[in-house]
Amino acid sequence: MPKLPLPPGSTIGILGGGQLGRMLALAAGRLGFDVAILEPEVGAPATRVAAHTVVGAYDDPTALAALAKLARVVTFEFENVPAASVEHLTALGVAVAPGARALAIAQDRVAEKTFLNEAGVATVAFAAADTAQAAQEAMASLGAPVLMKTRREGYDGKGQRWVEHAAEAPVAFEAVGAKPVILEAPANFVRELSVIAARGRGGEIAVYPLAENHHEKGVLRRTYAPAKVTSETADQAERIAAKILSGLDYVGVIGIELFELADGRLLVNEIAPRVHNTGHWTMDGCEVDQFEQHIRAVAGWPLGPTHAHAQVEMLNLLGKEADAWAKLAGEPETRVHLYGKRDAKPGRKMGHVNRLRPL
Amino acid sequence: MPKLPLPPGSTIGILGGGQLGRMLALAAGRLGFDVAILEPEVGAPATRVAAHTVVGAYDDPTALAALAKLARVVTFEFENVPAASVEHLTALGVAVAPGARALAIAQDRVAEKTFLNEAGVATVAFAAADTAQAAQEAMASLGAPVLMKTRREGYDGKGQRWVEHAAEAPVAFEAVGAKPVILEAPANFVRELSVIAARGRGGEIAVYPLAENHHEKGVLRRTYAPAKVTSETADQAERIAAKILSGLDYVGVIGIELFELADGRLLVNEIAPRVHNTGHWTMDGCEVDQFEQHIRAVAGWPLGPTHAHAQVEMLNLLGKEADAWAKLAGEPETRVHLYGKRDAKPGRKMGHVNRLRPL
User: Fold this and answer.
1) Are residues B248 and B338 both part of a single domain?
2) For residue B157, is pLDDT > 70?
3) Among A254, A325, A327, B84, whose CB has the most other CB atoms within 10 angstroms?
């Protein structure tokens, strides 16, 4: 295991070379760290701001060994890191954060909701089903409609569909890939909120103000933060974050997606064991943003403050929308963040802007 | 010449791989640019956050050609870039900013003060001397004491000394290197201030609030910003910045060091055609810091806002002082910036902190 807190000048490894890895690398650079990226694609966004790149699959033992040689502390930008890769790195003496348990739970929607409920955190009612028939039977007790999702993988609305009647469950099961699924009761929420929080290696917790999120076609479009909420709601979110972080013995930043119900209760929709798109507002709304906070946590540094100093509207730039960079850069209230991606495929996250107003 | 404004995904070249180059590279990365560093030293701070590095001397035609192949827009982190290098890059079709005129003037203290006075900007009285005898004669009219400085090079108090009597001028001339010098009358200032300003490719100007600077042994120790000044003083500084930027047909960020006299007048001490240590406070005190502002200017982008949203005390971390990183990172009001330098030589700038208070 590395000596912690990790001194500046050390190298931090990151699995994944996309925009989250890039923003983590830039934050690490501000604190005097070098970064080593492990990523299958040559020239990925994060690799172009990193001191070292290992090109290879996330489960390639040679690539993992090369990363371990460069970096004694490793983190990741996405939750589908193979468990075996974390074990492999750990066996090589690397401190991987967040840890294997957080990954395992975030990779399986049934394990995730089971953990949450056991930790005293409310979710929608749910059931697991491994076959089409089991899915149909589960709907008998859960009721209809349900949201059917594959237990593993799938993001931004992929691998999921609504099922209106139990009789349609088998068709839906085939449509999402004939793989084990979770069935979720509807939440009847009034707003989608999220909370970005961090836990340090000593167990200390720091929670950012709540954010209000608006999705389009399953993809995050806008975040408003700090969200207008009562102090009871803010307290509720902090308690939820603390239960999850402590329950997972978590190290790093976590994104927790919430449903706000009409009666004020918060249900957890899902957790992402990484920096999160709904936390991008912190880059211009807080003194220490989620990326620096994550680097601080995994490096064993003290956590930074989380209060907001501006009201922020974060807007994702999808596909060709990023072509408006010159106009956006000319808006005095707009801070522009672009990811250096070369190919603006439709719907691809190319950047985001934070529009600021005084608090 | 490159097409401007330079689109994200393009590469920006930077001459110099120190901390200023590093912070420029991190800012360029946020906007989606790649960076190519030209730097003689392998593994210099900026190279470790850059997509490309050309290792070579700043006047090596092969290295310059390699940089020109990577980047159509080139800037620099230090003012002693050889004029021939800028000419060489320009001949290769590269847009170099700030331009050759700003460099030539900033490299020669006599040319600098002559330009300033011709532009209607006040300085201390001064005289040029190429020989020991000429220096002694000049003191007959300038009076004593004078501050003798080499005309070229020298920074952080190096290559300069006070001369108390005309008879001592020849000894001082030998001591500073027996090279052409400038003799400067004392300023009798009450405070050292500085103003960081930027000019875009379309001639638009943006000026940050004034900063108050405290030096120790010729090296910047602390900056307080925004400085407590009257609106008359702020206006005076803005007019000075505008005269200098327009007079040089400048593109990029400039650092202008000022003496504030007891009667409120501002004299220009010196100008630095680059991002400036007294502008580091903008990293946490402003929405767009001096590094992003410089990248915006040289890339032909619109300039960003310059107002402060916090009161900042910037403290340079010299040599072993940076070893206190863990303590500093634990102070809630303190933002830590470290440069990734491996060798903490005494007095070497290893990082800085910005301590924030509400405005």
Assistant:
1) yes
2) no
3) A254
What is the pLDDT, as a whole number, of residue B155?
A: 64
pLDDT band at A332 (very low <50, low <70, confident <90, very high): very high
* B24-34 mean pLDDT: 98
In this prediction, residues A72-82 reach a mean pLDDT of 95
B29 close contact with A: CB closer than 8 A: yes
A326 and B302 within 8 Å at the Cβ level: the answer is yes
For B328, name the nearest residue in chain A, comparing CA atoms only: A302
Examine the domain organization and report whether B201 and B312 are in the same domain. Answer: yes
We report the CATH number of the domain holding residue A164 as 3.30.1490.20
Cβ B294 vs Cβ A322: under 8 Å: no
- What residues of chain A lie within 8 A of the CB of B308, using their CB? none
User: How many CB atoms lie under 10 A from the CB of residue B120?
Assistant: 11
Q: Which domain holds residue A239?
A: 189-357
State whether B325 and A32 contact (CB < 8 Å): yes
CA distance A23 to B309: 23
Using a 10 angstrom Cβ sphere, with 0-12 exposed, 13-18 middle and 19 or more buried, the burial of residue A186 is middle
CA A312/CA A307 separation, integer angstroms: 13
Tell me whether residues B48 and A29 touch, CB distance under 8 A. Answer: yes
Tell me the CATH number at B66: 3.40.50.20
Q: How many Å apart are CA B110 and CA B114, to the nearest integer?
A: 6
Please tell me which residue of chain B has the smallest CA distance to A51. B48
The verdict on residue A45 lying in a domain is yes
One-letter amino acid of A287: E
pTM above 0.90, yes or no: yes
- Is the CB of residue B334 less than 8 Å away from at least one CB of chain A? no
Residues B171, B249: one domain? no
> Which tokens in the block code for residue B263?
């009667």
Q: What is the pLDDT of residues A208-244, one digit of tens each?
A: 999 999 999 889 999 999 999 999 999 999 999 999 9
- Model ipTM value: 0.96
Q: Quick one: A247 and A199 in the same domain?
A: yes
A329 touches chain B (CB under 8 A): yes
Of B143-157, B269-283, B319-333, give the lowest mean pLDDT range. Answer: B143-157
Taking the C-alpha atoms of B325, B326, B332 and B333 in order, what is their torsion angle to the nearest 10 degrees?
-10
Do A200 and A345 reside in the same domain of the chain? Answer: yes
CA distances in angstroms from A34 to B27, B50, B53, B317, B321, listed in the order given: 16, 11, 15, 19, 20
Contact A8 B351 (CB under 8 A): yes
Q: Which residues of chain A make contact with B8, given a CB cutoff of 8 A?
A: 322, 325, 338, 340, 351
Structural domain contains residue A280: yes
